[in-house]
Amino acid sequence: MRFHSKLIAGLAIVFTTITTHAETIRIAIGTQDTTINCAAGGLIVRELNLLEKHLPRTGKYKDVNYDIQWRNFTSGAPLTNEMVAGKLDFGSMADFPASFNGAAHLEAKKRSLFINVLSGSIKGSGNGIVVPAASPVQSITELKGKTISVPFASTAHGVLLRAVRDQGWDPENDVRIIAQSPEIAGSALKSNRIDAHANFVPFVDLFPNRGFARKIFDGSQTNAPTIHGGLVDAAYAEKHPEIVVAYLKAVIEANQLLAAEPEKYSLLIEKVTGIEAEVNYLFHGPLGLQTRDLTWKPEFHQAVTTAIDTLKTFKRTSVDLDTKTFITDEYIRKAFEQSGQDYEAALINYAQLPLQANDSLTNAPITEFNRVAQIWVKDEPQVRHYASPESAFKALAALETEGKEIRAIYAQASDSGIKLLANQAWFVQNDSGQLNAFLLKDQAADFAQQHGGQVRDFATVSR
Q: In terms of Cα–Cα distance, which of 245, 259, 251, 204 is closest to 229?
């Protein structure tokens, strides 16, 4: 009995020693849940526990305990502060704040790495400018001398400055630019306390969807690429490259899920963030505002270079951030390879998420996509697709007669190809009744002058 007790005590000591010495590795990830095109780098990975699925469990990671920490932020600046302070290992943000992230790390004698793209647009779509719903302003050309608010140091700030300069205006004297968060700006727009507000994803589409603003400028009009992507602390990546690759494998899976079932995950994003599913689908659905893209295209390199130059021009930083060492595709390439994906094929693919569907009215396959329209009926799991706005509006009339509640109606802009909320769009209707959609009234008027037809608003053409 005495021998048995000693054996048990000895085993307990051994077990305790093994347990005590098991390494714990922190994986602290900063997300921006309400910046919905970061979803594949944060919200979806977290909500579906995808990271746990891909973490290494063999070799030097055989007996490791993982301490996974998630922290949500409303913008990139506070996330960067936490990364620089060593409280976060990963983070997701747009090109402008990401460049500031890289510069801030250098100023602190540290380094961060920009390791992947999450979503982007080579034209700049996703950022934009809105005005109060009742404002007479129809385009940026009418904002000279007006007050425009923007979240400072955001990508939308950079887009606003470029847009102002494209008008030949002095951003210091010809407009009054003030700092406002999306939450404050929403209230200001409702009460007409500002003339316009510039913002990033999803607010320039969310505010119009909620009925108190109109979009008068889309970032695609600057023709300057923009992205959101993922960063990692460089020292962490050097110590744990396998974990960085595992995180990116989880991102790849999240991106595939978004592409395969955009309605389902748009509803999940709504559940977590309160951002309406119809706005999420505007980005994550087929033919969306931005591409579902994880690769470092040359245009996305340029977006970061432009952001760095803008930071230096406006004296937000004085350090020289070299994109050749700040941006790396080393980890995303390995993640693609380990996930059985072809990085090179994805790198040269510039297409929007494709639409493979039949017209819900005629059941004929949709083969042309420049005039596609869509209707999301409330409580239906999938969006209905139509080959043309005329077909969609015919179906809309029938749905309303049936008493169906409509979540959203979408149309593709005839000039830029970006997806629009149809109830915010302008249309040109020709003599045969064919409709072409545009973001701005001026764009519609130019098209009508060149090709014939009448400019109509949504209320007129959808009757």
A: 251
